[in-house]
Fold:
Amino acid sequence: MNLYSFVQLDLFILLIIVLNIFSLELLNWILHQLRGLYYATHLGCEQKGNLSYTSF
Structure:
């Protein structure tokens, strides 16, 4: 009983850590997209990676 609850707590902590890493990656990706849009609107046509941005 005690060991089972300990293992359950350990898995819960691991899940929280994984979710934190995933949310950080997602936030970084969103910031990267916003930065690309910012450069596209302020610097005109620009090629970044596989995505090409054009000025509006």
User: Anything to note?
Assistant: The CA atoms of residues 9 and 50 lie 43 Å apart. The two ends are 63 Å apart (CA to CA). The mean pLDDT is 79.
